[in-house]
Design brief:
The protein has 482 residues and is an alpha+beta fold. 43% of the residues lie in helices and 19% in strands. The protein folds into 2 domains: 342 residues, no CATH class; 111 residues, Immunoglobulin-like. A hairpin with a 4-residue loop joins strand 3 and strand 4. Helix 5 crosses helix 9.
């Protein structure tokens, strides 16, 4: 037996391509073609779509006095919310509104799962609108699948081009409306008509329009599955008494196809005919029969289509329905299930939410229509003025939070023989401040030299709005040198 190695064989082995293993970290996502459906929950979903979009597209056009009713004017640093004007100093109110919104989401999630996701989330709303546009142009689910599977043709090009044109137009309209909350929308529309948009307005209209076009037109369920954090932490707010979309496994299994006249007892079948309609209508492409999944947005489309199938088969509705895990396990009735709404977690959320709302409304009701800041002139501690008067200099920053010109009368107390001097006050110590503006008022307080012992003395400024009789008091220090 020869031990001689064949040099050609060795060379061939070295030059042969090595076998490699490719590991896919992410499964390729198949395009989902949701089937159109109708029913109780679908009707409510479209009611919420109409309501949210009427509010979103309509409010910027509402006039309130001489301005836009809802306007976040970042350049002027003012937020106009109907009769309310908020300034950077009022950040606490905006913070409270965000906290109330978050807590409301927690409360509704604890009670009825992902109602926000299924009915009012912008991603859901715009996906439904884009799907409706797609169905009107390309046809139903089967027609869309057939169109995507065929090669490029004139018919396909026209349909795809028309769909994307309408999508882009709608997305840009959405971006235009969004920017209209920050730039007066009537001025913005004039700029668009005259093609004189500024760079920032152009950028944000394009950016928000592109985000709407991409998220609702292409990414759709991917946003809900992978980008939205709510899908990930919702389980922390769920419990066994949270209302969710559920499949009645005890009634539905074992599933299988059959004729309408089939005897379920003899064939040992449940009510589920395994038609997969619940999967076909799901906007995220899940099978609700596999139990609760984080991808489920709680829209109820599967419940609507399943009820339709049950009607056709002559079976009772409710194979897929809104229920709770406890109710399904114990076989509770609808009334028994609703009694568990007022459980400790829900009561805590509701109590804190009510307290926050009442506190916010009370604070807004008692909010002063003007603000005053008193700043001592630190460059001049104290000085002698004409007539043997000792003088301290202050600057009063008066902010008029109303939308009409206000007159404010100044007074100072705390020291004997205290005199107010100012070059901007009239004879009655009154100054005018324009609507929603802040004005600095230099003020000199004087007392006879030697009338007070050296040291710091407290003085109180009283500022009164002559039109409304509202009064603000601020304290400061009057220095008497040694």
């Amino acid at each position: 037996m020869s031990n001689t190695k064949d040099p050609k064989a060795s060379t061939s082995a070295l030059n042969a391509p090595s076998e490699t293993t490719v590991i896919n970290l992410y499964a390729a996502a198949e395009k989902i073609y949701p089937r159109s459906t109708f029913g109780f929950f679908t009707k409510w979903r479209w009611v919420m779509i109409w309501l949210t979009q009427i509010v979103f597209y309509g409010i910027p056009w509402i006039e309130w006095g001489s301005r836009q009713a809802l306007l976040f004017d970042l350049e002027a640093k003012r937020f106009y919310i109907f009769n309310l004007v908020l300034y950077p100093q009022d950040l606490i109110y905006l913070t409270a509104i965000l906290i109330i919104s978050a807590l409301s989401l927690f409360l509704f999630t604890a009670i009825a799962g992902r109602l926000w996701c299924g009915y009012t989330c912008p991603q859901t709303v715009y996906t439904e609108i884009f799907l409706w546009i797609e169905a009107k142009i390309e046809g139903d689910r089967a027609a869309r699948m057939k169109l995507d599977g065929m090669g490029m043709s004139g018919k396909k090009l026209v349909k795809k081009g028309t769909k994307h044109f309408v999508w882009i137009a709608f997305a840009l309209w959405t971006g235009f409306t969004f920017v209209g909350y920050f730039t007066p929308i009537r001025e913005l529309s004039t700029s668009v008509m005259n093609m004189s948009l500024g760079p920032w307005e152009t950028f944000w209209i394009g950016f928000y329009g592109f985000a709407t076009y991409g998220n609702a037109g292409f990414m759709r369920e991917q946003v809900c599955k992978y980008m939205c954090p709510y899908a990930r932490f919702q389980s922390a707010m769920f419990d066994d008494d949270t209302l969710i979309v559920t499949y009645d496994e005890a009634r539905g299994e074992p599933r299988g196809s059959r004729s309408r006249k089939a005897d379920l007892t003899n064939q040992n079948l449940g009510s589920c005919i395994d038609c997969s309609m619940c999967v076909q209508v799901c906007p995220t492409g899940i099978d609700i029969r596999k139990g609760l999944q984080y991808e489920c947005i709680g829209c109820g489309a599967c419940a609507d289509v399943c009820d339709t199938v049950m009607d056709k088969m002559g079976y009772a509705r409710g194979l897929v329905k809104y229920s709770t895990q406890t109710a399904m396990t114990n076989g509770w009735s609808h009334a028994q299930m609703l009694k568990r709404i007022l459980r400790p977690r829900v009561m805590i959320y509701a109590t804190v939410l009510v307290l926050l709302v009442v506190t916010l409304l009370t604070s807004l009701w008692l909010r002063s229509p003007f603000k005053v800041d008193v700043i001592r002139d630190r460059g001049v501690m104290a000085r002698l003025a004409e007539g043997g008067m000792l003088e301290n200099v202050y600057r009063l920053q008066i902010m008029n939070a109303t939308e009409s010109t206000q007159h404010y009368q100044l007074n100072a107390t705390g020291l004997d023989q205290l005199v107010i001097q100012s070059d901007v006050l009239d004879i009655n110590h009154t100054v005018a401040v324009n609507p929603a503006e802040s004005r600095g008022v230099p003020v000199r307080l004087q007392i006879p030299d030697g009338s007070m012992k050296s040291g710091s003395h407290t003085v109180t400024f009283e500022i009164k709005a002559t039109e409304s009789d509202d009064v603000v008091t601020e304290k400061s220090i009057f220095l008497v040198p040694r």
